[in-house]
Amino acid sequence: MQKTISPQTLRRLPAYLHYLRVLLKKGAVNISATMIACELNLNDVQVRKDLALVSGSGRPKTGYEIKNLISDIEHCLGYGNGDRAVIIGAGELGCALLTYEGFTEYGIDIVAAFDIDRSMKDTTMNGKQVFSVEKLPAVCSERKINIGIITVEAKDAQKASNMLVENGVMAIWNFAPVHLAVPDHVLVQNENLGSSLVILSKQLANKLGTDQNS
Ligand SMILES: NC(=O)c1ccc[n+]([C@@H]2O[C@H](COP(=O)([O-])OP(=O)(O)OC[C@H]3O[C@@H](n4cnc5c(N)ncnc54)[C@H](O)[C@@H]3O)[C@@H](O)[C@H]2O)c1
């Protein structure tokens, strides 16, 4: 039976993966959970538990063989499923995401972006194309797109979401500050950089002892 992995563990796995790949490139062979915890400034017990959920290859004394652990984490995260994504809204944020090459490290290929602004039609950024939204159905069916990334303003987000769902997208990464209504079979991950910043700011206030509520 497959073990259930919490969202918190899932969030930590890409960081382990990144670190392990760096180590492998440097020629390291084995690693312990304690070393990973120490390097990533995480709790030893937490890392041990996370790794036990995704890999049975850990051994007393030697720890994990790095290449096996990488492969187990990739398998757990569904890398190699060939997830392809498109971006709706090629403005400031959409273009930044489109040109960021690091998503391939997470097994996601952002194929193209779409915009209603005709001046952006058929432009290319870092080898990725920006199409007019009319081309969305053709690209979704030809490239078998299963993830949609929404980077339009809040007022346009539901429309963008509807377009993605109509074209067979099963998962939406939503950056617009709005709740999306989607059918039950569609997954939505809302992203809010502002809330992460607020958490950081709050933690800083607590640390400095300037939080009046504490
Ligand atoms: N979640 C976060 O952490 C975060 C951070 C920054 C921005 N945002 C949000 O991301 C969104 C985009 O921000 P931005 O600064 O890139 O805005 P922007 O105005 O630069 O870009 C929006 C683009 O969407 C296009 N657009 C509008 N309706 C469309 C549609 N139906 N189909 C295709 N394209 C369409 C516009 O032509 C424009 O190019 C906003 O909702 C903003 O609040 C979120």
TrEMBL record:
InterPro entries: CoA-bd, NAD(P)-bd_dom_sf, Rex_DNA-bd_C_dom, Tscrpt_rep_Rex, WH-like_DNA-bd_sf, WH_DNA-bd_sf. The keyword DNA-binding applies. It comes from the Bacteria. One of its GO terms (biological process) is negative regulation of DNA-templated transcription. The keyword NAD applies. Keywords: Cytoplasm, DNA-binding, NAD, Repressor, Transcription, Transcription regulation. NAD(+) binds at residues 89-94. GO terms for cellular component: cytoplasm. One of its GO terms (molecular function) is DNA binding. Gene3D superfamilies: NAD(P)-binding Rossmann-like Domain, Winged helix-like DNA-binding domain superfamily/Winged helix DNA-binding domain. It is found in: Cytoplasm. Residues 79-179 form the CoA-binding domain. Its main location: cytoplasm. Residues 15-54 bind DNA. Modulates transcription in response to changes in cellular NADH/NAD(+) redox state. Homodimer. Belongs to the transcriptional regulatory Rex family. PANTHER family: REDOX-SENSING TRANSCRIPTIONAL REPRESSOR REX (PTHR35786), REDOX-SENSING TRANSCRIPTIONAL REPRESSOR REX 1 (PTHR35786:SF1). This is Redox-sensing transcriptional repressor Rex.
